[in-house]
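Supplementary Note 2. Why include the ligand at all?

Several targets in our set were suspected to adopt different conformations when bound, so apo predictions alone were not considered sufficient. For every target with a known small-molecule partner we therefore ran a joint prediction. The input for zinc ion is given below.
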Amino acid sequence: MLDLICNSMKLIVLGSGTCVPSLNRNAPGYYLEAGDTGILVDCGSGTLLQLERAGRSYRDIDAVFITHTHPDHFADLMPLIHALRATPGFKRTKTLFIVGPALFIEYYDRAVATVLGRPREFSIQVTGISGRMDFGPFSVRTTKTVHSEDSIAYRFEHGGRAMVFTGDADYDEGIVDLSRGADLLIADCSFPDANKARGHLSARECGLVAREAGVKRLLLSHIYPADTPDIDRVRESREEFGGEVVLAGDLMEISV
Ligand SMILES: [Zn+2]
Ligand SMILES: [Zn+2]
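The joint prediction is reproduced in C-alpha cell form.
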C-alpha cells in the first residue's frame, strides 16, 4: 500500500477553461505532484489563486512546464516570479525551472525577463525541451502538436504510470503516439463536435485519440463556452471511446 502511494502521481485541475473569462472555469493550469516534487503544467491567469484554493502554495512549486505561448497558458508566470521574490518574510532558495518549447526561451527573454530582470534571490533556469528529459521523479516526453508554431504536448511518467497533457492540439498521429497506453489523458476538448475548430480537438476527437491510444481514462478539459451543456461532450467522446470519460472541473483531484 505504501508503495502504491509513493509511486502515484496526483493531479489537481486548477483551470479547466480557456482564454474566455469564466466564473466557473479558470484559464488553463494544472498542478502535478509526485513524491515531494510539485510542478505546474501551464499557468494561465488566476492559476496562483487556484493553487491557494487547492491547498498548495506558489512558494513550493519546483517547475512550470508550458505547452505554448498563448497567454491563457502562461500569463501567471510573471506574477509567480514576482511573488517568489517579494513575499514578506519568505526567502526562496531553490531554483525555479521553467520548461517550454524551444521558442519559449526567446519569448521569456523578451516578454518576462525584460520586465522582471533576473532575480538575485534565487535562480531561474529556462529550458527549451525537444523530445525527452528527466525532471525530479518524472520522466518527460513531448511531441509537437497541431495548434500553433510552438505548441507541444507533455507526457509525464512516474512509478510505471503515465499522464498526458495535450495542451492545445488538433488530431494527429503524434498526439496518439504520445498518449499510447497512458493512465490518464488530459485532452483539449475546446468544442462539441458541431462547433469543431481547427487547431483544437472536438469532444468526439478526444474520444478517438483515447481509443486509438488505448488510454485508461480520459479527462475533457480546456472547455470553451458553448450553446450545449458541457456535460454533452462526455456523451460525444463515448461514441468513440469505451473507457472512463470525465468532464474536468476546477479543483478536481485525480490520482493515478
Ligand atoms: Zn488554449
Ligand atoms: Zn492556444
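Residues 54 and 71 are 22 Å apart (CA to CA). The chain has a mean pLDDT of 95. Comparable summaries for the other entries are listed in the accompanying table.
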